[in-house]
Amino acid sequence: MLTKRIIPCLDVKDGQTVKGINFVNLREAGDPVELGAVYADQGADELVYLDITATIENRSTFIELVKNVAANINIPFTVGGGITSVKDVGDLLESGADKISINSAAVDNPDLIGKLAKAFGSQCVVLAIDTKFSENHWEVYIHGGRTPVGKETVKWAKEVVDRGAGEILLTSMNHDGTKEGFAVDITKTLSEMLPIPIIASGGGGIPEHFVDVFKNGKADAALAASIFHFNEVRIKDLKQYLADNNIPVRI
Known about the structure:
The chain has helices at residues 32-42, 63-72, 86-94, 104-108, 111-120, 153-163, 184-193, 207-215, 226-229, 235-244, and strands spanning 5-13, 16-21, 24-30, 47-51, 77-80, 99-102, 125-134, 137-142, 147-152, 167-172, 198-201, 221-224. By secondary structure, it is an alpha/beta fold. It has a single domain (5-244), classed as Aldolase class I (TIM Barrel), CATH 3.20.20. An 8-stranded parallel β-barrel has the order 1-4-5-6-7-10-11-12, surrounded by 6 helices. The longest helix has 11 residues, at 32-42. The protein starts with a strand and ends in a 7-residue tail after the last helix.
């Protein structure tokens, strides 16, 4: 059985790691390179760095930060935010990133998914889906959770797989930053329906939430931010708890 992955997420704004609740009310959490190194030492399987204002500010992702992360951290990391072209991805991979994450650009230009998969391999393409449950369905949002796009989440997830995405980073906006548990139902739906890994994001607050999303949500990985940034849960302790509950993890 494949091991389940624990992935700290570092949202970066103006060179600092930040974290909010439901995508708003941001507060600073520290230097992104230093934090990433700590998480690697604690046993994180991967890291995700998201330039959270790159798309709405219409600028490219932070190449210098990527180079610094690559020079100081020895585990795989994914970078997202402001990526709109094959060249953007090439630049990020050359700077040291292992995978890239796209969201808004894929919605605006779905053909980009296939172009990236062809150029760099599907394993490099993480499709981020920010989704919100309202009026009895899950809907896709872009621009850092600011803009609904009229796409139903399950249909969009199926489409991105068909177009070549290698992994889906699924963030529930309803659960983001609440620390009240992951969106287990929609995670399970996508995990059982699709042939690629699903990373659950949004709502992890205590170790029991991670057991729930792995066992009941069938997630391949779980991503969290504030509980790690503010030392509420240590990755080493979380992984031991998961192992004690028969969740296969790398310790």
